[in-house]
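Encode chain A's predicted structure.
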Amino acid sequence: MTIYEFLELNFDEQQNALLNGVLVANRRHSRGICQLYILGDFFVEILYGPEDFRILKLQPLVFNDSLEPYLSQISIDDLNI
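Encoded structure for chain A:
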């Protein structure tokens, strides 16, 4: 799946697509908990609410500054790409 195909999906379909992704990092956010997944050749950040762990946002990311908060946690060897 490409990032463009992912963006064409509705919210429920995006959640289902992430079942094929690999969790690579976690971090705390002022609005909850974030998890970073790799899906194909791009990353997706999921923001969960702090109290009910409900998904508040799914955000595809490209290789730029948006990955900065995760870089210390990601090992290229662990990505199997």
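The first strand starts at residue 22 and ends at 29.
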